[in-house]
Amino acid sequence: MPKDFYVMERFGRSESVPRNQTDTFRFYSYAPLSPATTALTEGTPPTPQDMTRSYVDATLEQYGGVIEITDWAAATSDEKLLARASELLSIQALDTRETLLREVLMSGSNVVYAGGAADRNSLAANTGIQEDDLYTIRATLMQNKIRPITRIVNPSNKYSTEPISAAYVVLVDPTAVSAVESLSGFIPVRKYADRSVIDPSMELGAWGKFRFLESNFVKTLGTNGTGQTVHGAIVLGQDSYAYLMLEGEGLKTYVKPFGSAGTSDPINQKASIGWKMSFAAAITRSEGVVRYEFTLG
Questions:
Q1: Residue 286: half-sphere exposure toward Cβ, Cα within 13 Å
Q2: For 74, left (φ over 0), alpha (ψ -120 to 50), or beta?
Q3: What mean pLDDT comes out for the span 261-279?
Q4: What whole-number distance in Å separates Cα of residue 170 and Cα of residue 174?
Q5: Helix, coil or strand: residue 259
Q6: Which domains are present in the chain?
Q7: H or E element: which one contains 93?
Q8: Per-residue pLDDT tens for 128-158?
Q9: Hey, what's the torsion of the CAs at 60, 288, 53, 59, to 10 degrees?
Q10: The pTM is what?
């Protein structure tokens, strides 16, 4: 499966923890400085300012999967089982990383409920995605000095970054695509004239200061007070979350052919293929990750 199917890592900051030091990483963020509106006195330097920083800690964990194949299965199957196993495990590894990121991003404390509802239980039926709510989210992000995203991670190029036109990014599940495309003034990605495409296969289009992408990993969030399914969208600003791996312990594949296990497999009956990775993620600035909850008819 192509990596562009996985979009959540593209808008965060990627970090690497040096080996032989720690399994916990501290993500720092700094509060913006107030404008310096007092004119300087000739020959007198300004008063030194303090930097205010906050932090969140994330602990690295290992994740992995393995498939074992017997010699008899390999000899009698009408398929190349090791190749099929490799494909399945590759998808599992990428699914795992995207799911772990999803769980972090959708667990944030910054929530907006459609139509101004007080909580999930109070959400009205069939709210859809409301333009007034998007204006509210945009205003709140701007007032909190959360900048629009201007660069994204390119996972196919060793996690380098590439520039994009400034926008807040919204991730929605596939069942919410029609609600996005129904917004008044929505510009489908195929009609972009002067902005680069974030992802040709997953980007839906733009509305106002927002760019919408669909993701099969954005999950529903239970039900409202009348039992209707509640959908969640993830709204992201610049430098609001990060993820990390241990140096040299990113995603790795391990192939053990028949006969590689020594005396524990004395007559070469087993082969295996598997993957392993280290991973952790955290929201580094809570104001920059908004969970928008709504219902669909």
A1: 8
A2: alpha
A3: 95
A4: 13
A5: coil
A6: 3-31+54-100+243-282 (3.30.2400), 111-241+286-295 (no CATH)
A7: helix 81-105
A8: 999 999 999 999 999 999 999 998 877 665 5
A9: -10
A10: 0.89
